[in-house]
Amino acid sequence: DGGITQSPKYLFRKEGQNVTLSCEQNLNHDAMYWYRQDPGQGLRLIYYSQIVNDFQKGDIAEGYSVSREKKESFPLTVTSAQKNPTAFYLCASSKQGSAGNTIYFGEGSWLTVV
Amino acid sequence: KNEVEQSPQNLTAQEGEFITINCSYSVGISALHWLQQHPGGGIVSLFMLSSGKKKHGRLIATINIQEKHSSLHITASHPRDSAVYICAVPQSSNNDMRFGAGTRLTVKP
Question: In this complex, do B43 and A99 lie within 8 Å of one another by their Cβ atoms?
Fold first, then answer.
């Protein structure tokens, strides 16, 4: 079945460590997104990519990095520079931009700093 | 003021009740999305609409572009409808979306 796969579901990070969250889609979508969700707040955009080898910063990109070497993959690295990384992270994709296209989400990844 | 406001924040209903969740937005859009987030965290898209009304099973979504307002209705609510419902509005300048904080719905048997 087509969809978006995020891994791992749960991740614990020690202070000062970088961690990478995986996001893979087999929907042949051009656009991919990473969002962060905190309790009581709407999703906030970290990074998005509209095409392979290109990506743009969202509202809260500081302390995060991404790559888009393949159309189906958009991994997110949470670096040690991100001071408050504990959150729920969601990857999403759409055929092109989100304006007129259905957006598909992964199951999310819970990151906790220990 | 948030660009996308949802009300209510929390809603508890008895099984069978008619549910309405509201979304008001200030950003310009081409289409508004209604999403459902399950307790495990995964999100599914329910509707994308730019005008009028859409219906899928017991779910109905309406939008008034002039008033910048959308509603999500659930008829004959069921405990399995318990979830967080989120409205999202694309920005026209890029492919970013602005999300409401969500409405947590609990339907009791």
Answer: no
